[in-house]
Amino acid sequence: MPLHLRPITRDEHLAFVAARPSASHMQLPSWGEVKPDWRAESLGWFDEEGRLAGAGLVLFRPLPKLKKYLAYLPEGPLIDWHAPDLGERWLEPMLAYLRRQGAFSVKMGPPVVVRRWSPDAVKAAIADPAARRLRDAEATSYDPRASDIADRLRRAGWQQTEPGGEDGFAAGQPRYVSQVPFAGRSLDEIHRGLNQQWRRNIKKADKAGVKVVRGGHDDLPAFHDLYAETAERDRFVPRPLLYFQRMWTALTAEHPDRMRLYLAHHEGDVLAAATMITVGDHVWYSYGASTSRKREVQPSNAMQWRMMADAHELGASVYDFRGITDTLEESNHLLGLLRFKVGAGGEAVEYLGEWDFPLNRLLHKALELYMARR
């Protein structure tokens, strides 16, 4: 039988997340407060005995001049994705509810891993001239259940999408990420998993006197100055300072240690800074920034190692470097970032990606055309 879907309270939502080993920070009630242009609602799936069996944060983005919405569940919802009756029991009640709320299209990101490539497999793929993308390289592990989920979603009318941009409706999350596995490993073992360049750079930073400290809300402007410089250097559109201040306030109000800020200092200069987010035993390196000055003292390696050590102390099972490129072309400026993350012992991980369900095909198509023009 289909589960019953209804709005749940913030406390119900947080209690459900707390009972799980991991959940995306984008599926927490606080994430809705980070996105003021979207209306947020916590939804719960209840079984026949009235027990909460699944939860999700849905963000509603209004279509200009119409009372219609794009409904978005980033990296969610938190449901039983491997259930044999996934469509009729879990997803159909969600679509019916969102249609009643005025949604013309639904976007979701199933937190389902398809494939993993070990650091050695990624390095071999980068060195292989025949491999142009990660998917061309043989994976270290593969979960056939993910393909089954994808097939069932397609048969039900869901459409797989590629990540979009950062602004407007293109609220895409990365399909490929880099993760360092921590579970069952000592900090020494994790350190041995760093490549030679990483270990050398950490030593160089320590010898040069780089100090990594934790900051607070008042240090966000210093972080943002470096972030704006990074955006110009790496050719992306930066988020405003207010965004990070809002994120800090929302996430730390929900849990005092949900979000951290780290800054790498050298002789009075802040050379690198990064944010870290923790939910359960999953830790994310969220946003990073650095200056082009004094790069020879290797502040970014020192800062990341401090963050990894702190994540290990928190009991993390995984340190998540977030998005990576799946292209292995030397001409792609993001390949250096992939090398950096894999050098830290990070696996390449492919998720199922984001999926759309057009509830109103005409409006959904209009949105697609609008985004294509942008």
From TrEMBL:
Keywords, comma-separated and alphabetical: Acyltransferase, Cell shape, Cell wall biogenesis/degradation, Peptidoglycan synthesis, Transferase
Matching InterPro entries: Acyl_CoA_acyltransferase, FEMABX, PG_Glycine_Bridge_Synth
GO biological process per UniProt: cell wall organization; peptidoglycan biosynthetic process; regulation of cell shape
PROSITE patterns, per the entry: FEMABX
Molecular function in Gene Ontology: aminoacyltransferase activity
Family: Belongs to the FemABX family.
Protein name: Peptidoglycan bridge formation protein FemAB
UniProt source species: Streptomyces dysideae
